[in-house]
């Protein structure tokens, strides 16, 4: 046997898949926490606000940054979920100057002023701890168009392009009070990340491309038991519902990365692309 034959090829770097099921709108959703580590949200009732996706995204990114010393790579894919029903806010684009519902009015109407204020205070405190800006109010709109764009971004440019888009969307929605259903805003975002130019993005958003894929992903998530966001599945082994701290994510990521087991969990959400 020659020296070249006896030389072992280096093993490929292990990839840990993270599926982050989320929505971009800012309103209540039902999402019981499976694992309570650092934030016990039981006092918050059965409702959570999907600004938690905004906060959870930051916590997860910080945790991944804390794993740079490990010989693994993380593939984070955001998948869609919708919290609004057709009767709450219509999906059709709004006419210029048409009034859109805002977050404060929506929560007060749903919970009453006192509960709405106490619930949002929890979100503000968590955002502050995460070092994230959070506007006092915001627009409530359907997120279907944004989800279609995010799915397209992952198909074309993987987690780097989709992650860049998510950063733009989350900041615009929760810090700058932008309308996530506005075609012009989304077309600008698509151009910024290099997905397509503004004219192409406008045509894409006005068509139905990726709509079936988004619907399939949402249906698959609901069929697997997801009924609120954020819902995160890590390496097919850990299912986390509800916002968690960076420390919680870091603990789990390091534990999984250092494990030799590669067994996949049957509960992982999968659909045809």
Protein model, in words:
By secondary structure, this protein is an alpha+beta fold. It is built from nine helices and six strands, in the order H-E-E-E-H-E-H-H-H-H-H-H-E-E-H. The protein has helices at about 5, 50-65, 105-110, 115-130, 145-175, 185-190, 200-205, 210-225, 245-255, and strands spanning about 15-20, 30, 45-50, 70-80, 230-235, 240. The strands form two sheets. It has a four-stranded mixed beta sheet with strand order 4-1-5-6. The protein has a two-stranded antiparallel sheet with strand order 2-3. Helix 2 packs across helix 9, helix 3 (about 105-110) packs across helix 4 (about 115-130) and helix 5 (about 145-175) packs across helix 6. The longest helix has about 30 residues, at about 145-175. The protein starts with a helix and ends in a 16-residue tail after the last helix.
Strand order across the biggest sheet? Answer: 4-1-5-6
Q: What separation lies between the terminal Cα atoms? A: 46 Å
Please report the number of helical segments: 9
Measured on Cα atoms, how large is the radius of gyration?
20 Å
Q: Briefly note the structural class of the backbone.
A: alpha+beta
User: Mean pLDDT across all residues, rounded?
Assistant: 79
Helix content: 40-55%
Number of beta-strand segments = 6
- The ordered string of helix (H) and strand (E) elements is HEEEHEHHHHHHEEH
Largest sheet: 4 strands, mixed
What sort of overall outline do the alpha carbons produce when their principal axes are compared?
globular
Low-confidence stretches: 27-49, 86-93, 260-273
Report the sheet-strand fraction: 5-15%
């Amino acid at each position: 046997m020659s020296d070249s034959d006896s030389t072992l090829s280096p093993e490929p770097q292990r990839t840990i898949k993270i599926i982050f099921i989320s929505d971009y709108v800012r309103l209540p959703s039902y999402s019981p926490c499976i694992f309570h580590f650092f934030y016990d949200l039981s006092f918050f009732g059965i409702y959570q606000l999907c600004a938690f996706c905004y906060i959870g995204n930051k916590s997860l990114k910080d945790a991944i940054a804390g794993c740079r010393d490990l010989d693994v790579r993380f593939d984070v894919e955001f998948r869609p979920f919708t919290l609004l029903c057709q009767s709450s806010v219509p999906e059709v684009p709004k006419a210029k100057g048409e009034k859109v519902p805002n977050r404060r009015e929506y929560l007060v109407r749903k919970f009453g002023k006192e509960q709405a204020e106490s619930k949002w205070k929890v979100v503000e405190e968590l955002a502050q701890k995460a070092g994230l800006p959070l506007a006092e109010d915001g627009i409530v709109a359907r997120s279907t168009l944004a989800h279609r764009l995010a799915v397209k971004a992952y198909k074309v440019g993987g987690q780097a392009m989709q992650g860049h888009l998510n950063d733009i969307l989350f900041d615009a929605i929760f810090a700058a009070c932008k309308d996530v259903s506005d075609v012009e805003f989304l077309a600008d975002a698509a151009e910024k990340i290099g997905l397509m130019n503004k004219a192409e993005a406008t045509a894409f958003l006005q068509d139905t491309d990726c709509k079936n894929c988004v619907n399939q992903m949402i249906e698959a998530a609901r069929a697997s038991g997801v009924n609120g966001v954020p819902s995160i599945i890590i390496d097919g082994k850990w299912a986390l519902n509800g916002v968690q701290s960076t420390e919680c994510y870091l603990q789990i990521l390091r534990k999984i990365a250092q494990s030799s087991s590669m067994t996949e969990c049957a509960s992982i959400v999968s659909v045809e692309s």
